[in-house]
Fold:
Amino acid sequence: LRPLAVSLNSFNGFLTCADGQRLFFKTHVEQDGIIGEYYNAAMLAEVGYPIIQPICASTQYGQQLLIYEVMESPSVFDVARGLERQPDTAMLTRLSEAQSRADDHLFTIYTKSLHAVTAQENAAQPVHQLFYHRLMGGRLQRFYGDAQAFTLPNGVFDARELRRKHWTINGSHYEETLDDIINRAVVLLNPVRDDVAVVGHGDAHNGNVFFTGSGLVYFDPAFAGKHHPLLDLTKPLFHNVFAMWMYFAEEEAAKLTIDVHADGERWHVRHDYPFNAVRRMFWENKTQRVLVPTLQMLRAQGTLREDWRAFLKASLFCCPFLTLNLTGFPPKISLLGLTMAVQMGSESIEQRSLIDSLLDTVEQALS
Structure:
């Protein structure tokens, strides 16, 4: 077994066959799953995704396991983290160029695979396991039910109490509580609706993409299917840009300055979590080359949801709030995770948050 920081809800490792051949395996572990089958690698390959094909696959829920030939190239996750720890302008340029080519190709796949889906077809897609089913299944209650407690820099608080707080984060005000955000996300992310879909990987964060000599190559299509393009973009938009605290909690806590004080039911939090050049590159490539053109395409076809921004923010909210249990992190990181959930899920008032400023730029590109 090979423990990896990037493997938040999965495990992987190596196996050796009787003839001495060494192989790699990976499985995704998703409690409360209701989707019957995962791992549609062939579907991705058919529409042009450069994806590593397994040599053996078990795709039935509860028994899902893929076996691959060993891949020697590094993941984009590892390359990016290396650049954060030791800047290398030439390597960052190479990575950015590869990311640009991959994102241009991704948009081409979106344009070719965009089609209408019925409510029944939409609801059956595996990607909803990452968003709606985490909200509606047992995970939300297990993580943040009334019996759960957070240990934060300013004390110990039960989850029910924190879900009802109002927040001011780095000067940005939020009128909605976490309970408000959860309730809206349940409505917005309900997949039982006629919609549009593309063929998408569903979980294409950098840990599931390899940086090879011929470009970026996808891996581990656990949630691949035919789903809305905004859901397809959610994981890379959040995890590649905002989430290093989630993968390297102790390391990030040692660098983080975060302060909080209460004013009645409102908490005022300030932190210095960075938005560095590597993370900005990922955001700009994905939004300029995929998100904005996709929104423009949907609008031109008359299929752009009027609530597309709220829909995207609801799915982004699920990433910091429901990928891992925030009560299990060091106190400073638990608090940072809560602020990330609020910022992703709610609109900032007066002073704009980083995510809202970035999405404002996306909206301006549509006008």
Observations:
- The two ends are 50 Å apart (CA to CA).
- The chain has a mean pLDDT of 93.
